[in-house]
Amino acid sequence: METVLVLVLESLLLATIPACASELFGARMLRVVPESHDQLDHLHFMLVNSPFDFWREPREVGMPVDIMVTLSELPELIHTLTSQGLTAEEIIKDVGQMVVERSLAVYARGPRAMDWEDFHDYTTITKWLTSLSKDYPNLCTLEEVGKSYEGRPMKLFMVGKGGADNPGIFIDGGSHGREWIAPATVTYMINKLVTNSTEYDDLLSQVNFYFMPVINPDGYDFTFINPNNRFWRKTRSDYRPKVPEESEEPEELEENPVCIGVDANRNWGHHWMEGGASNNSCRFTYAGPEPFSEVENRVVRDQILRLRSKLKMYLSFHSYGQQFMYPWGYTHVYPDDWKELDDIARKAVSALTAVYGTNYTIGTTNNIFRRALAGGSHDWVKSVANVKLSYTVELGNSGNLFCPNSSDIIPSGEETFQALLVLADHVKETYAH
Q1: Could you read off the pLDDT of 384-410 as tens digits, one per residue?
Q2: FRET pair for 298, CA 20 to 30 Å: which of 4, 11, 353, 366?
Q3: Is 381 in contact with 387 (CB distance < 8 Å)?
């Protein structure tokens, strides 16, 4: 039966969205390791200015960089790398086949009841949140706070039993569509808190948790439509450049699917476009035409501003990289309270590592990536919304990159939940009365 499903999915890949379908099969994932600052600078330039899809972005000399490349793009990429003395190692030989093998159940079965044995689309997640709010009315509330570009309802889910004035933690995930493990991990932690509320009664009586598991619902669901779109990163707003009507080929750019959308985590309005982003809508790191151009980011922004007098911590979950980062991203200068941010992060990571031995790098975003990465959410949340403790967490990859196995979900949830408990306990002990 599984062989039949694989063949069906391969046929689907080849039959739908031709511009993408022919590219995934045979696409490679290459790993390069910069050995000099000149090589690192060149990779930084490629990240912002080239059409190549960086799965692991350049950080520092000696650290691996992962690039997904289609067969048609492969000669150009190899030439570009070798011209700088960079040698590429093939990590994945056929990305399309990997999608079929690792996402077989998701694309074959369609929607089903919420669980953590596999990944779920946005509709399934929101229906599950609705059911929790009905089943646990004294613990949970669910509020529609806006709609996405394509009209999907955006929901804010609150867990807490001590009153609206309790200190709060705002938690989001799914800023980049393809990062399935992030919403899966966030929903796992929601489920753990809600269905085991008696065990965490003291915590839930003194701290409120505000969850938005998928803050880019259009981009996320686009990756569920069919396997061709599995690695979509951006939102789905239309910024395709227009060509003159008199052009002989006016549809060339207007129909280019990669020119749709914005990198949502480069679109926040704090030192926007001051490093690590592109102003070209056809690039994966496109920061948008202006700060907060994306309605999804505006919805999240408005909720954080509405709650900011109560919020003491912000957590944004991404993948992959095993990094626990705090501001700033736009500059190498550390925030005045960086030692406190660092100490808290180290305690959380220590609890996480104790579960399965997963190691995380801890530091400012700029320090970890050795360059400016501006327009990120945790910079804006700390500086503008004045939420003191602000973090971005790049979850562990278990070697499975942006296409994890369903068996990665529970381990990721288990270890990350232990970190959350440490963070929440700090908020309780420091701010609860």
Answers
A1: 999 999 999 999 865 556 778 888 999
A2: 366
A3: yes
